Amino acid sequence: MNFVKPYTLFTDHDIYLFKEGKHYKLYEKFGAHSVEKDGVKGVYFSVWAPNAKKVSVIGNFNNWNHREHILFPRWDKSGIWEGFVPGLTWGTLYKYAIETQGKILEKSDPYALSWEQNLQAASLVSTNWYEWKDKDWMDNRWKKNSLEAPISVYEMHLGSWLRNENEPEKFLNYRDIAEKLVPYLKEMGFTHVEFMPVMEYPYDPSWGYQITGFFAATSRFGSPQDLMFLIDELHQNSIGVILDWVPSHFPGDANGLHLFDGTYLYEHEDPRKGFHPDWKSYIFNYGRNEVKSFLISNAVFWLDRYHADALRVDAVTSMLHLDYSRNEGEWEPNIFGGNVNLEAKTFLQEFNTAVYKEFGNNIMTIAEESSDFPMLTKPVHEGGVGFGMKWMMGWMHDTLFYFKKEVSDRKHFHHKLTFSSMYMYNENYMIPLSHDEVVHGKASLIYKMKGDEWQKFANLRALYVYMYTHPGAKLLFMGDEFGQTGEWNFKQSLDWHLLNYPIHKGLQNLVRDINHLYRDETALFENQFKPEGFEWLEADDANHSVYIYLRKGTKKDDVLMIVLNLTPNVLDYKIGIDSGVSWEVILNSDNHLYGGSGVDAHIFKKTNEPCMNKKQSMYINLPPLSGIVLRQKKDKKNKLQKTKQHKK
User: Fold this and answer.
1) 154 near 193, Cβ under 8 Å?
2) What pLDDT is stored for residue 1 in this prediction?
3) Which residues are catalytic?
4) Crossing angle between the packed helical segments 135-144 and 224-236, to the nearest 10 degrees
5) By Cβ atoms counted within 10 A, which residue in 284, 290, 305, 601 is the most buried?
């Protein structure tokens, strides 16, 4: 006997859009939905399995018996199976039993909103209803997510940021994290937080990047509503939320998407396009319309139902290049003989077009992309891929390469730090010092620095001044703000006890103050993606390892000067300045407050001698291994003369 009743949420137009790859809200149709039929409450199920012989719902309500609740195949050749099961409620455990040629596969629901945390990993009939309190943020977030706003991102892994001291083996709930995280981010001055994947994943060492439940908030840390509470609290405190999103691949778990109906349904059948050799995972078939609808609907889901402000798209390089991590003969060129995955590029263009059309400039999309793929952040209608920003991986590699060098050798690599100015306006860049740089034997950031303990911290402080004053948005991985000494370990909390040591506390103080400086000084962000916002004063003094540049806002007199002295020597340095202006030091990374040596960065002489193509010059005392920031101000004498001329 079949206990399933005919029912559907799909219209003919839904089916048309699904087949065309243009349905971007499939989460409203697929999955398990609480509905009422003929006055009886229950759950409607629907799943895409076009090559199945039979599909039934199994669960704790029928002792996992695949013969009792058989879904109905739709008549329109869409491959969708659906039906209504009376009497089921939220919390019901279920899977789909998919009968193929000679076997029955037990699959979790690709659209489930919650999953169990055990080996069975069954889906749960759930809801993502939540009474949001972030209306003010949502109405005005376009200002905070704008390319002309300060964007300083704290990247974090929810499972290892902080744990209960009494039960370190257990995760904190999303709500417990909110209680600790929100005030910390506010104090530290970060504008946004980026969560490494919160979607359900089976294997902790994957850090969340091997996703099985694309529509489910991982139940490691609580319910969907608990995650929504965390995001809501962040928004109510004016902190934006970026979610890592992984449309590049998925694991081969038996209950996941792999061979979902016994065939290569979600993944590409050709292993040259469908199997990832590095991650031993499966690559989505971007040429299949139904798969595109699934993925873009998933992106819209997190922006819609969870109020995410941005999606950072993982592993874009692997998506766009057919030869990524493959030897000759292991990949097939595209129709033009090149190595670009044209189907993946088209998918990413459609994804960006869809989410920006739906949410406008309220949201951002950010590509984690390490190659020089052209026009990644240019509009789709101009031939670009359409991302809002791209990670500036070249800056990260060159900067860390330089700071790993002995001070005496830096003059030979001086232009590693100037090279980014050759291309920094080719795309809209986010400067990342991410989790990838502090794992797999790469050492923590503080231990990448050269020298004794004092020099290591001084170097890292100077690096942060360089980072925060360089054009582009910023991203810093958790723990790097206070000099975590060990590599990141996903199994345990950060080493917060290090803040008992003044030198670690000093580094944290610097990151706090420079975050607030970045937010307060419009010269650092108004033109951060425009060439008129930057000017070199001294880019070639390799012998002294000194760099000097200006950052400029939209107002003519809104100018900051940044001076980096990347040797342990105190220098008296001559710098060219415009006539009629003076400068004041507003940040010195060598300050005692930051764990520095306390050498004062002071201007001790001003002359009419031309220097650096400027009409006048000043002499300044440069602390060792330091970054200093100066603010331009009009001379009082100059202001007085202008006032007299105006009165005349």
Assistant:
1) yes
2) 60
3) 314, 368
4) 60
5) 284
